[in-house]
Design brief:
By secondary structure, the protein is of the alpha/beta class. It has one domain: Aldolase class I (TIM Barrel), CATH 3.20.20. Helices cover 35% and strands 18% of the residues. The protein contains ten helices and eight strands. It has helices spanning 13-24, 54-58, 63-71, 92-101, 117-128, 152-155, 182-193, 207-215, 225-228, 233-241; strands at residues 4-8, 31-37, 82-88, 106-110, 140-145, 163-167, 198-202, 220-223. An eight-stranded parallel barrel has the order 1-2-3-4-5-6-7-8, surrounded by six helices. Helix 7 (182-193) links the parallel strand 6 and strand 7. Helix 4 (92-101) packs parallel to helix 5.
Length: 249
């Protein structure tokens, strides 16, 4: 599995298609993260929330996404790209079903998006896990944790998730934000307590900080603007991948 997970934060479905098509040209890319922002938990709203009417948003049902799921449409390049959905939204447990219908296999829930993290995960397991007919090795659940949040917020849920996503920026929902070095210590402490749990970092990841993140035990680097704004995305991807072998801190 690649170290780098390219990420796209689309304002429209066309922009989503264009971003994924760009990543699909890189032979080594096997996984892509789609950032989903509802404009409530984080802002500004991204697609599909940005294309929904006011009434749709009140009902927490992104119309375009719902219509695609009902038509049986699938995410592009699904034959060789797997998708994880970063659900920066308050209705994550509800819209998850639509993303799974489109072919997504990894769902990242934000711990701060709910007042009851264990209940959110329990609901997701019941509705979309192996017990609901989805093979456990095809649908994975992860928790994202903001810079300002204490690791204790997710401690009781460790056995219910496959990975933890540490946010590397203070203001989530936007690409191109500055990296917050506080994430180094959060990753170090968490890995010391739970070395068996896969960690990934999303936000502000660059070639300058990637080496230390990998050395601290991070398995995946989610890179958005660092890939999309690169003069040559394939070259940028290869440069990040060079950190695949851990280095000493």
């Amino acid at each position: 599995m690649s170290l780098v997970v390219p990420a796209v934060l689309p304002s429209s479905y066309k922009e989503l298609q264009e971003g994924i098509a760009l990543f699909a040209k890189i032979p080594s890319v096997s996984r892509v993260q789609i950032d989903v922002v509802d404009g409530k938990f984080a802002s500004p709203a991204s697609w599909p929330y940005s294309s929904s009417t006011k009434s749709d948003l009140v009902l927490d049902k992104p119309q375009e996404l719902q219509a695609m799921a009902q038509r049986g449409e699938m995410l592009p390049f699904l034959d060789y790209i797997s998708y994880e959905i970063d659900l920066m939204c308050l209705d994550a447990a509800t819209v998850a079903e639509m993303w799974l219908a489109l072919g997504a296999t990894r769902l990242t829930f934000h711990a701060e998006s709910t007042t009851d993290v264990p209940r959110l995960l329990s609901s997701a397991r019941k509705r979309y896990g192996a017990g609901a007919g989805f093979a456990s090795d095809l649908v994975s659940f992860g928790l994202a944790l903001n810079i300002a949040s204490d690791v204790a917020l997710i401690e009781t849920c460790i056995r219910e998730i496959e990975y933890v996503q540490f946010m590397g920026i203070a203001r989530i929902g936007r690409q191109g934000q500055p990296f917050d070095q506080h994430v180094f210590e959060k990753v170090r402490v968490f890995h010391g307590r739970h070395p068996e749990i896969t960690m990934q970092v999303d936000g502000g990841v660059s070639l300058e900080n990637a080496k230390k993140l990998v050395a601290l035990g991070v398995s995946n680097l989610v890179v958005g603007s660092g890939m999309l704004r690169a003069a040559n995305p394939a070259t940028a991807f290869a440069a990040f991948e060079a950190f695949q072998t851990p280095y000493g801190v």
